[in-house]
Amino acid sequence: MAKRMEDPEEKVKITSVSDAYSLLKYLSKESQEYMVGIYLNSSNELIAKEVIAKGSLNVVRVLPRDILYYGLKHNCNGIIIAHNHPNGSSKPSEEDINFTKKLSQLALEMGFELLDHIIVGKNDYFSFAEKGLI
């Protein structure tokens, strides 16, 4: 499902949350929760975007290994994860906060940097990095 960026002319560089959000805002229209991973090289250029999991109306079940597996597969440096809230709110749940902390630590131990976790709402987003939570 991932598209590997081979041609240097096609490289997409992620330098801000808005760059990442532009790749993810389509999630605001989904009626089920999705978890998506964006995998970047050391220059923050897109290597791959993966749909990690598709959930139900209000939950998507993901283990850190599901996300980190693709980090290993794509030999990336940085990871941005994102999921949507079909109810329209971009506010993180306590479970979102705890999962992000755990994933950030595990990613670091494996040699990756979790750059952000973005929650896509109906008309906006929540960035853990912007709020200083990563």
In short:
By secondary structure, the chain is α+β, with helices and mostly antiparallel strands. It has helices spanning 17-24, 64-73, 94-109, and strands at 34-40, 46-54, 78-84, 113-120, 125-127. It is built from three helices and five strands, in the order H-E-E-H-E-H-E-E.
What does this structure look like?
- With 134 residues, the protein is α+β, with helices and mostly antiparallel strands.
- A 5-stranded mixed beta sheet has the order 2-1-3-4-5, with helices on both faces.
- It has helices at residues 17-24, 64-73, 94-109; strands at 34-40, 46-54, 78-84, 113-120, 125-127.
- It contains 3 helices and 5 strands, in the order αββαβαββ.
- Number of DSSP-assigned strands: 5
Report low-confidence residues grouped into runs of 5 or more. Answer: 1-5
Q: Order of strands in the sheet with the most strands?
A: 2-1-3-4-5
- Largest β-sheet summary: 5 strands, mixed
Strand proportion, as a percent range, falls in 25-35%
Given the helix and strand composition, which structural class is it? alpha+beta
Number of helices: 3
What does the average pLDDT come to? 92
User: What are the secondary-structure elements, in order, as H or E?
Assistant: HEEHEHEE
Percentage of helical residues? 25-40%
Shape: globular
What assembly state would you assign to the polypeptide chains in this entry?
A: single chain
Evaluate the radius of gyration.
14 Å
- First CA to last CA: what distance? 27 Å
